[in-house]
Amino acid sequence: MAEVPPNLTWERAAPPEATGPGPWIEIAFGEGDDGDAPVYIRETSAPDNVVTTNRRKWDAFVLGVQAGEFDHFVEGIEEAEDAASPPLHSS
User: Domain limits at 64?
Assistant: First the structure.
């Protein structure tokens, strides 16, 4: 496993209105501007478990998300979350 630099600036990938500890995904970019520059990914609930990729692969992933290439992974999630939430009653 690659050594994770201690001075990374982690960015939480969460909606601005999100509160609480998550779990959220956090991203940090390593030194370098080329396609081989490291990108670090972790979950807030397990910050010592870091996955490393490179900028070229990260950029391809982000473009794929923006293009909707991964939408099939989340189909039905909102409906399932709504069904699991208790109904709100007004008094």
Answer: 11-84
